[in-house]
Specification:
Largest sheet: 7 strands, mixed
Strand content: 15-25%
Distance between the termini: 41 Å
Strand order of the largest sheet: 7-6-16-17-18-15-19
Oligomer: single chain
Number of strands: 21
Structural class: alpha/beta
Length: 567
Amino acid sequence: MTSTVPTAVHPAGEETARRPITMFGPDFPFAYDDFLGHPAGLGQVPATEHGTEVAVVGAGLSGLVTAYELMKMGLKPVVYEADRLGGRLRTETFPGCDPALTAEMGAMRFPPSSTALRHYIDLAGLQTRPFPNPLAPGTPSTVVDLKGESHYARTIDDLPQVYRDVAAAWADCLEEGADFTAMNRAIRERDVPRIRELWAALVERLDNQTFYGFLCDSAAFRSFRHREIFGQVGFGTGGWDTDFPNSILEILRVVYTEADDDHRGIVGGSRQLPLRLWERAPGKIVHWAQGTSLAALHGGGAPRPAVTRLGRAPGERITVTDSSGDVRTYRAAVFTAQSWMLLSKIDCADELLPIDHWTAVERTHYMASAKLFVPVDRPFWLDRDERTGRDVMSMTLTDRMTRGTYLLDDGPDRPAVICLSYTWCDDSLKWLPLPAEERMEVMLKSLGEIYPGVDIRKHVIGPPVAVSWEDEPYFMGAFKANLPGHYRYQRRLFTHFMQESLPAGKRGLFLAGDDISWTAGWAEGAVQTALNAVWGVMRHFGGATDPANPGPGDVFDAIAPVELPED
């Protein structure tokens, strides 16, 4: 359900009004958007290092942001990619249909609080529009179908009282157990001392707590029925019961920063962002000629192939072997692919990382996720039922196999797309054995029980496209979600870009990607960790930021994540 968290007081003042709430906290409250927007730029390396090659493993959003910014500094990123440009910014077309008709297999909705991501969306000249989440202002209607009983709504006030009670219970639970208003306001005002004060106490108290345990400890959720409804319907984007075993800290990061509110989609598909970064020639660039792009720095305009081995060589160097058998040695490398690749697909030397970082990689917990889309002739769901006066079909939340169904159109007279099902974890695994056509048949049957008078099948104009991210060989899951007690592991991975305290033989390889961030599953985390890695590489080569625009490593000691005892 949307708008179920308490509304924070919006502070007055021109400066605060100009700077939106951002997903920079609460673990590491660094203003990445200000860092990106400063005219001094992100820093520079000595001229003697210009043209030096840096390996960038993975051409998802994090890898391409890393490569793009390193190129601007005058370094030469060498990008490796096993699959395709874009990673989980994966936009698919439908065979035999207009290529303008697309399906977002990975990231599909982005909150305004993704302010660093927004920098690159604007840089690439892309447009966004409201995403039709349940009960969102731009969503024509929503149907909540639980235990065989359906409720039609345009706003939460149209739902039975029990749903409003659940929304109120969630707000009370957050306020009583997690100081929601105080933290939300501190993040909105970018009040770093207050953020750190509140978060340190919460991490110490809640690191061992599950999401479900947090609900159970709240007087507001003493009712099992309320907890069940909340798990099936959730807040903002749909049901959250698949997250119940995860650390409550993961959920708090989402609600504090309004990451689940006011989502927008990228017009034409999210994959346009990495593709445009690959082809874009920066207006301001060092060493390289004007007009240079990442594509231009790579022979044939394509990345190097999949990495098969990573090792170390004398002189604090990193060796990279790719699937063609080519072996190259670099003074620095940035690994942005899914971290489990270091355990499986890539043969890695033990000395690449300190042993406690290997433990953190091994303990990383990934969420499964599945989607299936079909193209349809038009947005028929906007037709009115003559008997009831309602839309014949709605954005749907249900406890049936489909769980979440999203209706996506580009105008009343144009072909449209239905995401018949979007599921996570156990719900996602139920689909795994079935090919796309069989999945579609089960989904149409379930939706037919919710909308018995609607023939969805007759509107379908092409084959379905589907993904199960846990079955993707270069991903093995959709996104990281820490379990209780995993805060220490995440801290090790996130802070790895700070390498001055590491032994000389453990430096030079930097980790980035959304699973390294505190906000995995959000493209913003991919961007933030890319910028951390850029700062780390710059410092590794003896470079520095402009004093007027300090980077994440320059201010690290003042805002470092909470450090819990290890004994």
